[in-house]
């Protein structure tokens, strides 16, 4: 973005798109627009009509509106809300119903009148659905139409729940959810099978009728679909692309969500760029991919035919540039992620001294560590580094009741066999608590504790396969997670303090972390912000100046080749061992959308897909061919 010297990219983008450095900045801008509307309408003695969305994306916007209500006197007394959608078949009290979401995230926290808060009725009998959808459309018209519509976007390109295939003239109706959408919701419902198959959503035409539209998107996971909606043709395959028709629609997105826009991804294709070393690397590696040629076989025509003639003018010949890029990529490869003792380290990603290193691996939840960097972790341990794995959260929210039930049954039976009154008493208490909460209740503290302990046992078994002593595992159980639920987490100083204490105790030479570029409200995204704050607070500690931070990508994502500063190859045996380690996390078989599915519907094997893809990408550049590669990017702490 910053490197683009003109606005030629505007020709490619069919929707005005503003890129913000943080989602909070974007939310502040949208909140300003909402405040102006509410104030202007109030002065005119009229209501303001807002169309709202659920999901992770608008949560920070709602928090900002609540803040303005509490601290700046913003009143919602003249506001009418129409929400986009509701799962079909869920009663309003269901923990995952959008009605409940809105009550908890906004409606109950400002002075909205209950009669002004509308959502499609997800509980209406099948035969009344059509009439109910008509009534919803009519209610919007009667209210004067929607003034400002807030949208998120699904990875399928859906807006509201208008899945691919939705037409621009569609209206409020019952739809079938796409399998990717159901997978993305699997975590909330503790398993894909529990996610409703249908929903009622405003149509694309209903959305396009709004006078002003803001679409918000955060995190890398949305980058591809954002680029398709903004730069692609209008198509039913990406319903968000129909927003190109709207005269007053703005996409407000963060840098990670913008990362696939041509102006960010391939800026040399849309204008003049400043050829910084990072930009050169990005462009040349892209050229190799695009032409299907290894780096050392690129010729002058390849450069000039792909918008990079000026780079050659600046750098001399293709020959020299190819060699330089080949060497840079080659030097990212190392079998010594903790540095190779007594070796010349002038071209190695990690320094040789000190050795052994105190390596700290931060895993937002149990499983992230092995899933994303199990092979590297194994090497660090076997190469005698002083490794600590810290699980920042317990991960207890991702354990289905059925898994807790199994353990409780075991405890009950053991208690009976041993005739131990105390053991039995406790097992019965757990049994009762689990039954009492039923399908819709939140887990009481005892059940959350049990679920957290189940995940600890899984982490220990997986660590055993990596020769990691369980004494090296630390379970921080950060309070923001223990006291919260998905989408309601609110980290504070106590979380940061806990991490600062650990950092002080370990004084790491290297930290492996993740969450950079994630949805800021996701567990990895929040953990990354906590790490940032902890590092900022530790700036005066001597160890900080001698600490390298290596970022790994969370499950379901991987660095692109030009972003990789350290590539750790895995042999077939090491790779198999890692996969076995992942299998120890039995409770996670169906939980996380990002674990993904292979062709057989298994949720485990995406790790192998990603690590193998990185190895193939290196191979295609003309570098050595490995079975799999785990990739890391070095973080400049001051960025
Ligand atoms: C929610 C809605 C959906 C979401 C989209 C993104 O009311 O209509 O279109 O906006 O699925 O969800 P998150 O924000 O959870 O990534």
What distinguishing features does this structure have?
Rossmann fold, single chain, binds fructose -6-phosphate, disordered N terminus, alpha/beta
Word description of this protein:
The chain is of the alpha/beta class and 639 residues long. It folds into three domains: 14-263, Rossmann fold (3-Layer(aba) Sandwich); 284-331, no CATH class; 358-396 and 452-635, 3-Layer(aba) Sandwich (Rossmann fold). The protein contains 21 helices and 17 strands. It has helices at residues 23-43, 59-72, 98-105, 129-142, 179-184, 204-208, 223-231, 262-265, 277-291, 300-304, 309-315, 318-330, 368-382, 401-418, 421-437, 445-465, 479-482, 493-506, 523-537, 572-583, 606-620, and strands at 17-20, 48-52, 79-83, 85-87, 117-118, 148-151, 173-176, 198-201, 212-217, 249-254, 358-363, 386-391, 473-475, 510-513, 548-551, 566-570, 628-635. The strands form three sheets. A seven-stranded parallel β-sheet has the order 1-10-9-6-2-3-5, with helices on both faces. It has a seven-stranded mixed β-sheet with strand order 13-12-11-14-15-17-16, sandwiched between helices. α7 links the parallel β9 (212-217) and β10. α1 crosses α2 (59-72). Mean pLDDT is 93; it is low at 1-6. Residues 53-57, 84-85, 152-154, 158-161 line the site of fructose -6-phosphate.
